[in-house]
């Protein structure tokens, strides 16, 4: 299903990924992971295919499967510090500001693999307001594609997962949303190949309206 079909979805709450969905941080991600790939003698194209949507330690575990997890956790701390210090090129995804404004007063939450400093910094760099409810790396024990983050977001908002729609850009994130039992809106060029419920190029193609019965109506295109 694509935006061109003028699809309509309904939900009671929305769960929003950050990187690639609200914020375009590809420039920073590519700079930091390019350095990491070179340090470990790995092909950058293979590395960048893995890292989107996952926490850093989880990406490292996929790319260096024989390495002890303690080393992944340690390097992930270094990676988070490097990413948090580098906001050059961080910009909003088209339509993100207006989209977030349209959600004011409606049930929604941020569900991101970034930690608190990184998510706060990137949203600020992109000029976007942070949702009041936030599920970050510190909130979960398992990275996307595990559904834990989305399940916690739904619980925090007080809704059944089946009544929530996830917004995601990456394969890991889309898999997490689907595993949580949610419909998934795929955002941007990476999303289409991973089977989201609806796929749109950016947030200018999404409109949310509140119905009188407490449901949210999403229209696309």
Tell me what the structure shows:
The protein is of the alpha/beta class and 221 residues long. It contains 8 helices and 11 strands. It has helices spanning 26-40, 44-51, 56-63, 69-85, 96-102, 116-125, 148-157, 171-179; strands spanning 8-11, 13-16, 23-24, 91-92, 108-111, 133-135, 164-168, 183-187, 198-200, 206-210, 216-220. The strands form 3 sheets. Strands 6-5-2-7-8-9 form a 6-stranded parallel sheet, covered by helices on one side. Strand 10 and strand 11 (216-220) form a beta hairpin. Helix 1 (26-40) crosses helix 2 and helix 3 packs across helix 4 (69-85). Residues 1-6 have low confidence and may be disordered.
Q: Which features does this protein show?
A:
221 residues; alpha/beta; 6-stranded parallel beta sheet; 3-stranded antiparallel beta sheet; 8 helices
């Amino acid at each position: 299903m694509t935006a061109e079909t003028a699809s309509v979805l309904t939900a009671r709450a929305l769960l929003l990924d950050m990187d690639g969905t609200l914020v375009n941080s590809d420039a920073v991600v590519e700079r930091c992971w390019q350095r990491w790939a070179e340090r470990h003698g790995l092909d950058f194209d293979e590395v960048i295919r893995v890292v989107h949507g996952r926490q850093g330690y989880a990406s490292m575990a996929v790319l260096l499967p024989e390495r002890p997890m303690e080393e992944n956790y340690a390097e992930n701390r270094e990676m988070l510090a490097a990413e948090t210090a580098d906001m050059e090129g961080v910009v909003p995804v088209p339509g993100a500001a207006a989209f977030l404004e349209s959600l004011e007063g409606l049930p929604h939450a941020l569900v991101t693999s970034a930690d608190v400093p990184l998510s706060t910094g990137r949203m600020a760099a992109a000029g976007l307001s942070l949702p009041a409810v936030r599920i970050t790396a510190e909130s979960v024990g398992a990275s996307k594609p595990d559904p834990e983050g989305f399940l916690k977001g739904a619980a925090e908002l007080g809704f059944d997962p089946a009544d929530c729609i996830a917004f995601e850009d990456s394969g890991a994130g889309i898999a997490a949303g689907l595993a949580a039992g949610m419909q998934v809106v795929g955002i941007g060029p990476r999303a289409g190949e991973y089977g989201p419920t609806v796929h749109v190029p950016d947030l200018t193609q999404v409109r949310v309206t509140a119905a009188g019965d407490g449901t949210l109506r999403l229209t696309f295109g």
